[in-house]
């Protein structure tokens, strides 16, 4: 999020680093940033002939350096090196050409390396850090960061929504920046003619994730509302295979059991993400839900899930009916 703003600032000033390293798990944000960077080169050459994309798996460092040193008719060039493997254990490429280049890069070329992860102790990283710029692209982690990201995306689209609607949107759609961006685009079209997006708009047009539905289903179970739980189950089964629904229910019950175990030993929600392997945002939601369900209830629910799984795979019974019976037993 902040990384893209830095790139926009560099483009606006016309000051692009000669050497870049971008890495991180959020591929959507990296691709959005690349669009911003490319816009600088399209301004002087709409054909994009000064932009070249190569693979580190296919070209040697010496060849890539040669490409970076090539002069362009339009003066500015962008050489994007994808699939960077120079940080992996056992890599055998001769990196000396890069080390020489970093000390005296071609000022008319931006040499951009893109990697999923890096090793900050490697010589390649240290040398690049001295003469280039390094950006890490991470998806938001805490709830407040997700809300801030959504609000920033809305502002760029000339729209707005209040905090409650933003929370509803994230819970409804999930925690993937690419999916959220697509759903925001749909909402912008749907609300053409007005600025504010409401929770009703979100429920009408946005695609709800199965994870959100499973969460609501277990909320209904915690409140002993079999009618609501069955209603939610029927909605989910219209879109998803019964085995997938059951798999997600098992996952959710196990996470709830994990939260209860953590609470019993004096832990807190801050520890949940690393111990349970989930995002901080999801941890907050599951931690709050786990208060409503006892360990005994969850243990019985997990046992029922396993029995239903066996029945789905061996009995030949109607999958929807088997899941309905399981949910009724949950609520009872």
TrEMBL record:
It is an enzyme of class 2 (transferase). Residues 211-330 form the DNA polymerase III delta subunit-like C-terminal domain. One of its GO terms (cellular component) is DNA polymerase III complex. It catalyses: DNA(n) + a 2'-deoxyribonucleoside 5'-triphosphate = DNA(n+1) + diphosphate. Residues 20-136 form the DNA polymerase III delta N-terminal domain. SUPFAM superfamilies: P-loop containing nucleoside triphosphate hydrolases, post-AAA+ oligomerization domain-like. Keywords: DNA replication, DNA-directed DNA polymerase, Nucleotidyltransferase, Transferase. Belongs to the DNA polymerase HolA subunit family. PANTHER family: DNA POLYMERASE III SUBUNIT DELTA. This is DNA polymerase III subunit delta.
């Amino acid at each position: 999020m902040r990384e893209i703003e830095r790139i926009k600032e560099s483009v606006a000033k016309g000051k692009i680093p000669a050497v870049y390293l971008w890495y991180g798990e959020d591929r959507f944000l990296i691709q959005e940033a690349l669009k911003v960077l490319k816009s600088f080169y399209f301004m002087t050459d709409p054909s994009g002939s000064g932009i070249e994309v190569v693979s580190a798996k296919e070209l040697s460092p010496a060849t890539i350096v040669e490409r970076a040193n090539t002069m362009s008719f339009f003066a500015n060039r962008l050489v994007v090196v994808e699939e960077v493997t120079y940080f992996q254990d056992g890599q055998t490429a001769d990196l000396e050409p890069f080390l020489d280049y970093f000390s005296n890069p071609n000022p008319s070329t931006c040499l951009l390396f893109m990697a999923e992860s890096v090793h900050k102790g490697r010589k390649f990283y240290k040398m690049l850090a001295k003469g280039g710029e390094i950006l890490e692209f991470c998806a938001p982690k805490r709830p407040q960061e997700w809300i801030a990201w959504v609000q920033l995306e809305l502002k760029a689209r000339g729209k707005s929504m209040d905090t409650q609607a933003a929370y509803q949107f994230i819970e409804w759609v999930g925690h993937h920046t690419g999916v959220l961006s697509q759903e925001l685009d749909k909402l912008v079209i749907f609300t053409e003619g007005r600025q504010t997006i409401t929770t009703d708009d979100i429920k009408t047009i946005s695609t709800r994730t199965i994870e959100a539905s499973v969460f609501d289903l277990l909320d209904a179970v915690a409140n002993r509302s079999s009618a609501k739980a069955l209603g939610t189950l029927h909605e989910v089964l219209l879109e998803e295979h019964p085995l997938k629904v059951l798999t997600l229910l098992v996952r959710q019950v196990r996470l709830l059991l994990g939260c209860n175990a953590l609470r019993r030993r004096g832990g807190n929600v801050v520890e949940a993400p690393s111990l349970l392997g989930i995002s901080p945002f999801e941890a907050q939601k599951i931690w709050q839900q786990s208060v409503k369900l006892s360990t005994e209830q969850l243990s019985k629910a997990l046992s029922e899930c396993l029995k239903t799984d066996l029945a789905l795979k061996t009995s030949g019974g109607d999958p929807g009916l088997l899941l309905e019976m399981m949910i009724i037993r949950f609520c009872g």
